Amino acid sequence: MSNIVRPAAVAGTFYPADPPALRRLLATLLADARCAPPPQQRSLKALIVPHAGYRYSGPVAARAYADLQGWRDRIRRVVLLGPVHRVPVRGVAVPSARVFATPLGDVPVDEQAISRQADLPQVVVSAAAHAWEHALEVQLPFLQAVLPRFTCVPLAVGQASAAEVAEVIERLWSGPETLIVVSSDLSHYHTDEQARRLDAESLQHILALDPVLDHAQACGATPINGLLLAARRHGLLPELLDYRNSGDTAGDRSRVVGYAALRFTEADDGVTVH
What we know:
Elements (H helix, E strand, L loop, with lengths): L4 E2 L12 H14 L10 E7 L4 H12 L11 E7 L8 E3 L4 E4 L2 E4 L2 H5 L7 E3 L1 H5 L2 H4 L1 H8 L4 E7 L4 H10 L6 E6 L4 E3 L1 H16 L13 H14 L1 E10 H5 L5 E11 L8
Parallel strand pairs: 1-5, 2-9, 3-8, 3-9, 4-7
Antiparallel strand pairs: 2-12, 4-8, 5-6, 10-12, 11-12
């Protein structure tokens, strides 16, 4: 890996570029997100969060990130998966950068964790896939606002099977210090009524750990399906924390994008189901 710093690409558009303004916005979103903590005997292992501009999906994403308050001293690594929007790629792309920068500071890339999957044929190095990708970047300020320190494993998912993504996730599963975050919106550009019907069906599949989503249901269908395969194997318990669409947050209900926040907890410490 090189010494490249991947600079913030969508600061000032998807979220504020001014650090004090960004901190204030994140503090407000997290304070407004009233999220019941999971039972103490269950460890938080994975989240699904939306990735639109904070004006649109920030309140929903905050519902998921509010969960981390109870685990902030345990989580040290975040495996962050999201779909590519700008640069097509075959497989799962890791960055060439060692650091991802945001207005709140630098997030180090976990090079050791990335090296553990380097031999997988579906894993490729692509600086281009990460350079302008917003799906991963918009999650980092939320994580910085909640976690005192962490490394990240940024994975930009292109053309890949759910099994290929699940294989990568398995390599990075580790223990309670590792959190998996999948970045995805749900349906795009339907009416409010249509979107709620379509998204309800998609959420039923997610809550059943049924890895059958397509990209009309979720732009991050591939990483979601990969997570669901791994979650089924490890016996994770899914829970819907919040569902809204851009009509709820931004006002226009004629052409909306769906957003959901979900968490996945372990029934026991690291139980695996075969």
